[in-house]
Amino acid sequence: MERLALRSVPVSFFSTQLLGHGSNTLFDDMGYRGVVVSTAGLRSIEWDPPPADLASCLDRSLGCDVGSSLHEGTETRGSLVLVGGGVRGDVLARMAARRGWSGLEWAGGIPGSVGAGCRHNAGAHGGRWSDIVVAAEVVVVPKTGAPTTPRLAWVARDAIAWGDRAATWPGAGNDAIAVVTAALLRLTSEASPGRAAAATAEHLAWRRERQPLGRPSAGCVFRNNPKCDGTEFGETAGALLDRLGMRGVGRGGAVVSSEHANWIVTSGAGDGEGTATAADVRDLIEECEAAADRVGATLVREVVVVPPEPAWE
């Protein structure tokens, strides 16, 4: 099966960077001197897999009883989906909605992959991946070090330390990254099939009205909860940057979006146009952080800025 392809990834002395569909990721203008592990090809989707077969497989892999959790509730049958880590979350949300399955409506319009969403516990509109994950198939890849063959294993949701836009995975840390190659999700079969579709479409429309989805960007720049002395600042990142006058500020070919101050886009007139470099975007990110710092707020980056790591450690 396609989600087993990462077993053949050659991991030796090179630096390793994980990449899903590239949302919220900014590579350096110099590129990246190392191994990029892409999950974009892991696109299998199995709707309504037989719970008995899943339980047998997962119980052996996890060394615990998952079967009982798969049978909890009368709605379980017809609400499980086994999905590859490279599937886009918004695509899966639309497909689920068409089937009348709820639980992913909040993901409408969010382009990130299922694997990345689970890995970081992404969410919106009150929903997040940790709400629906039963188990995840993970391979832990060393960032650097001696040659090794990554091993795939299933991880139960209770073994994952879930946080706000964060998750800590067994075996991962400063020296290794967890690659989510597949996830078993539990959704809910709606009595009214049109309700899930309507909610998904509503969330997508909300994003299109408020965010520059048609412009090249690295996505939402900062998390929506700026801090002040470790506590919530009381404003979203976009509202704070707007109040500080950052909307429309440009550097080189990059500009803080006029539609939403928490997005940095190219300054061209249309799709694919503009001459923004990664350095332009990075400078603008740092300028936003400095503006917030002057009023006592700390912005937490959602965009991952990937430096041009040396090929050898």
The major sheet is characterized as:
5 strands, antiparallel
CATH topology of the largest domain: Uridine Diphospho-n-acetylenolpyruvylglucosamine Reductase, domain 3
| Average predicted confidence as pLDDT | 80
CATH secondary-structure class of the largest domain: Alpha Beta
Order of helices and strands: EEEEHHEHEHEEEEEEEEHEEEHEEEHE
For the record, the count of structural domains works out to: 2
| Overall geometry | globular
Distance N terminus to C terminus? 34 Å
Please give the number of β-strands: 21
Q: Which architecture of the largest domain does the CATH hierarchy give at level 2?
A: 2-Layer Sandwich
Low-confidence stretches: 1-8, 73-77
- Radius of gyration, in angstroms, nearest whole number: 20 Å
User: Which structural class matches the secondary elements?
Assistant: alpha+beta
Tell me the fraction of residues in β-strands, as a range: 25-35%
Task: State the gist of this model.
The chain is an alpha+beta fold and 313 residues long. It has seven helices and 21 strands.
